[in-house]
Amino acid sequence: MSVFVKLESLHELYDETAIIELQGNLECRSNSKLVSQFIGDLYFKSQSDGSVLPVLIIGHHILNGRIQNLDHPLIVMKQEKENTDNLTYKIKTIVTKKISFKIRPKPIIVNN
Q1: Count of domains for the chain
Q2: Which of 50, 65, 91, 93 allows an S-S link to 54, with CB 3.0 to 4.6 Å?
Q3: Other Cβ atoms closer than 10 A to 32
Q4: Is 112 inside a domain boundary?
Q5: CATH of the domain at 8
Q6: What three-state secondary structure class fits 12?
Q7: Are strands 87-101 and 16-22 parallel, antiparallel or unpaired?
Q8: Domain-embedded: residue 101
Q9: Are the CB atoms for 87 and 80 separated by under 8 Å?
Q10: Of 11-15, 33-37, 61-65, which one has max mean pLDDT?
Q11: Model-level pTM?
Q12: C-alpha 53, offset from chain centre
């Protein structure tokens, strides 16, 4: 499953798009497809050294990740028909980063 996320860039001229990489499977309780479904909340926590730590909360689980540059950038394209004979592809964005969550999720426990 590929999930693309718009990142707010440090540059005001453009935004970046990243792909999220998860280890394991995401399953829906109702056995429906995850297309256009709310999965969780993605936050970016600032560190004291100036770096950013991505945090993903899915249900009662929290995942800490890291942002990495892709070795080979990906292009996201959309197929468009100009007429019956020709197909064209429009480049929507270039993906240069991935947000990877490789560590097992930790349960969120609330003390009352």
Answers
A1: 1
A2: 65
A3: 8
A4: no
A5: 2.60.40
A6: coil
A7: parallel
A8: yes
A9: yes
A10: 61-65
A11: 0.70
A12: 14
